Amino acid sequence: MAQIILGKTGLKIEKNGFGALPIQRASFDETKEIVQKAYANGINFYDTARAYTDSEEKLNYAFEGFNEKYPRESIIIATKTQGENRKDIEKDIKVSLDNLGTDYIDLYQIHNPSFCPTEGDGSGAYDALFDLYDEGIIRHIGFTSHKAE
Question: Minimal CA–CA distance to 11: which of 90, 102, 81, 108?
């Protein structure tokens, strides 16, 4: 498979990634089979979100809590928050870390925000993201959008 660099992150990922939205409809054991097959075939980028019900937990289950067979450093995890303020982002990151069974997220994104957080905008979202970045809890910050505006 072909590797690419993910944007400006420097993260080397396979050109094909694993989007975890559909595993909401699969059982934990079905998910484990699918995810382990993807990993065995070279997929190293896994995209999930707090809004994808139990997909974070299912990825953790599939990777058996990370171990020698599934080393955490070989798996790039992107997850998302719909939080648009410090309190919600901090709450969501704690839940995501617990669900995923990891102490850091490779790419943490605000999921389809209603505004673009900026420093000093009063929401605290920007500062929360950069504080988590400075603490090493998130390695890269991103935003997703479903709207052209």
Answer: 108
Residues 82-106 as b or e (16 or more Cβ within 10 Å = b): bbbebebbbebbeebbebbbbebbb
Q: In the chain, what is the greatest distance between 2 CA atoms, to the nearest angstrom?
A: 45
pLDDT digits (tens, 9 = 90+) for 78-114: 999 999 999 999 999 999 999 999 999 999 999 877 7
3-state SS, 58-92, equals: HHHHHCCCCCCCCCHHHCEEEEEECCCCHHHHHHH
Q: What are the sequence ranges of the domains in the chain?
A: 3-143
Q: Which CATH architecture has domain 3-143?
A: Alpha-Beta Barrel (3.20)
Please, how many CA atoms are within 13 Å of residue 12, restricted to the half-sphere of its CB?
6
Residues 6+ apart with CB under 8 A from 106: 9, 11, 76, 77, 78, 138, 139, 140
Tens-digit pLDDT profile for residues 107-143: 999 987 778 888 989 899 999 999 999 999 999 999 8
